[in-house]
Automatic annotation (TrEMBL):
InterPro entries: YjeF_N_dom (IPR004443), YjeF_N_dom_sf (IPR036652), YJEFN_prot_NAXE-like (IPR032976). This is NAD(P)H-hydrate epimerase. Residues 226-254 are annotated as: Disordered. Residues 231-254 have a biased composition (Basic and acidic residues). It comes from Mixia osmundae (strain CBS 9802 / IAM 14324 / JCM 22182 / KY 12970). One of its GO terms (molecular function) is nucleotide binding. GO terms for cellular component: mitochondrion.
Length: 254
């Protein structure tokens, strides 16, 4: 069974990935690898010929940076990505694994819209407003699919949908240090599926490849939305930074 990790362990792993004696990655490199994994999970679930439009909800931290990178890759994969970016800033998909408490404006309105939508949702790392270790204790929305990055978090144990893992970038010595039981990534694979489910939706989403989740789609509930060009995606990638406490952010939900 793939190892489930705590919030503290997730933070420690991120620090080791950027440590010269660990992974020696820069934060930009980690965002690039995580964003590519997210885009790949989408591409393996829904092809652009049947689901060309993708709405990506991104927060202002490193998690949102992963979403911006994913948008760029999805554009290259043949999709038409649109960014919903409710709070733009040069530092810190909406929260990181350091999140706790109740969502604050403007993110609470986004969570409410996700609660009400009937469209399929894919979350990144842990669904927004879920407790990283305890799961959906607040009774908020449950996504149809989840992609965990590096290693799945304890809070994902109760998740019932299709569960992807993107962690090819974790070096063997870091996996050994933290006793991570991770799957192999054969060939050029960027993601592995940990659990599959298939459902049929009244909205007509086909269950291609036995999966059921396009990246975030939502109903007409967002009062404002920012659309972003490919050039802006590249610029926004470089602006997303670490949180104010200096720790790297977990890449949480879209």
């Amino acid at each position: 069974m793939t190892t489930l990790i705590s919030q503290e362990t997730a933070q420690d792993i991120d620090q080791w990935l950027m440590d010269p004696s660990g992974g020696a990655f820069s934060i930009d490199q980690l965002m690039e690898l995580a964003g590519l994994a997210c885009a790949t999970a989408l591409q393996k679930t829904y092809q652009p010929c049947t689901h060309p439009k993708v709405l990506i909800c991104a927060g202002p931290g490193n998690q949102g940076g992963d979403g911006l990178v994913a948008a760029r890759h999805l554009w290259h994969f043949g999709y038409q990505p649109t960014l919903f970016y409710p709070k733009q800033t040069d530092k810190d998909l909406l929260f990181g694994f350091s999140f706790h408490g109740e969502p604050r404006p403007p993110f609470d309105a986004v969570i409410n819209a996700l609660n009400e939508t009937t469209k399929p949702i894919l979350s990144v790392d842990i669904p927004s407003a879920w407790d990283v270790e305890k799961g959906n204790v607040s009774g908020t929305f449950t996504p149809d699919s989840l992609i965990s990055l590096t290693a799945p978090k304890l809070g994902s144990k109760s998740f019932k949908g299709t569960h992807w893992l993107g962690g090819r970038f974790v070096p063997p010595h870091i996996a050994q240090r933290f006793k991570l039981d991770l799957p192999d990534y054969p060939g050029s694979e960027q993601v592995r599926v940990l659990k599959e489910t298939a459902r049929t939706y009244d909205q007509g989403w086909p269950t291609a490849y036995g999966m059921h989740s396009p990246w975030i789609s939502t109903q007409k509930g967002f009062a404002s939305r920012s659309t972003t060009s490919l050039e802006d995606m590249h610029r926004l990638d470089s602006e997303s930074n670490s949180e104010s406490d200096g720790k790297s952010d977990a890449r949480r939900n879209l």
